[in-house]
Structures are given as C-alpha cells and as structure tokens.
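Exercise 3.2. Students should predict the tertiary structure of the chain below and write it as structure tokens, then compare their answer with the key that follows.

Predict this chain's 3D structure.
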Amino acid sequence: MKIVWKVANVLLALFLIYAGIQHFLKPAFYEPFVPSFLPGKTAIVYTSGVIEIVLGVLLLIPKYTKLAATGIILLMLIFLPIHISDVFSDTPAIGSHEAALIRLPFQFIFMLWAYAIRRFCGS
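Answer key:
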C-alpha cells in the first residue's frame, strides 16, 4: 500500500509543479482570480506560481514531504474563498458557472489528497 501513496505523492507533486509553471506561461488566465482589492495582480500570480512549484518539489523530498503537504492544505484553504466567490459571481473568472462548480470540489480533493500524503508519506 505504501507504493500507492508514493505514486499519489509524485502525481500531486507533478500537478503542482505543472500548475505553478502555468502561472508564468499564462498569467492573464490567473489574474481574474486575484481579488480586485489587491494590487499587483501579476506579481501575486507569479508568487503563487513559485509557491506551487516549491511545494511540488518539496513533496518529492522525503524529509520535507509532510511540511509540503501541510503547505498545500494551507494554500488550498487560502484559495478556497476565491473559488467559492467564483461560483456565485455574475462573470466567473474561470469562464462559466459550470466550470466554477466543477472546480470548487477540486479544492477539497487537493486538501484531502495532501492530508493523506501528509499522513502516509514522508519522514
């Protein structure tokens, strides 16, 4: 069973690294998610991309797996209000209400996934 969690760990790490890279390749896609009251939308997008990449890499280092998993849970909690407001927005940043409704549960899936990795992997 340990191999299942190792594979799950690598998959989550790869997903986070990929998502973080996308923040640099397509910042305009992510900027509408940044709340309007915050200045420096592009800087926030890049910063969140760096955080996702770092957490993804740390997941792959057994000594830091639990720390990274905890960071992922916290990051998803920080992003959660953004995704909830997107569901109720007249013009969802993700493009449609359907997409916003589909995306929202993924925040919880990622939190549970990271929690499971925190529990079953790493030092």
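Discussion points: Helices lie at 2-25, 27-30, 41-59, 65-88, 97-120. The radius of gyration is 15 Å.
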